[in-house]
Amino acid sequence: MIMLTIANHTFKSRLLLGTGKYPSFEIQKQAVEVSEAEILTFAVRRMNIFEENQPNFLEQLDLNKYTLLPNTAGAKTAEEAVRIAKLAKASGLCDMIKVEVIGDDRSLLPDPIETLKASEMLLNEGFIVLPYTSDDVVLAKRLEDLGVHAIMPGASPIGSGKGIINPLNLTFIIEQSQVPVIIDAGIGSPKDVAYAMELGADGVLLNTAVSGAKDPVKMARAVKLALEAGRLGYEAGRIEEKEYAVASSPLTGLVGS
Fold it and tell me: 3-state DSSP helix/strand/coil percent for the chain, to nearest 5?
C-alpha cells in the first residue's frame, strides 16, 4: 500500500491512535503496540509537560518509535488553541498540531470560525497544521486553501461511537482535497474504519473505540486489520452497483450451447 505523507512526515500506518482513557498504562501500551500505529495523539492539557515529577500517561511507551500529535482539546477560541500549541512546541514534542476548537459543549462540535482563525495563525507560526472539523464540504475547502497539511472531518460527534453518519459529505471532502483526509471522531467499530477507508480516506484517527472496548488490545488489532482491508478494497476498485442481478457465470461458450 502507498504510505501516508503529511507535510514532511511519511508513515507506513494510516491509523492514528489516541492515548487517553485506557483502563491502565499496561493495557494502553499493549493496544498501541498491537495497532502498529505510528502517530499517537493526546491533549496537551492532560499532561504537565514541564514537570517531570507529574504522572505521564505516555511513560510506558518507547516514544522513539512514534510521532506525537498533540492536540488543542479544551480550547474555545483561536487564541487559546494557539497558546496550547506553542506550549507543545516549546516542549519539543513535535512540529505537528491537531487544531481542536470546540464551539458547543453538548455536541462537542468544532467552531468553524475559530478553527479557521487558529489554523491560519498556526500556519503563520510555522506549524504543520491538522484541523479537526465538521463534515462541512465548504469549510474543508477553505481550510485547504489556507494551506493546512491535512483535513480531519468527524464521522460523528466525539466519543459517540455512531460511526459514519454522513458518507456523502465525507466523499465530497475526499474528492476535492489535495491534502490527506483523516476521518476523526465518532468511530465505534472496525466496520466504521473499513468503511472510512473504502470511501477513499487517507487515514483514520480514533481513541474511544479502542480504549473503551471490553478488550482494548483485541480491538486495537481489529481496527488495524479493518483499516488495511478497507484501504486495499479502495485501491483494488470495487465493482459498479447495478439495479438488477447479473449472472456470475457466463451463459455463452458452454458445452451444448
Answer: 40, 20, 45
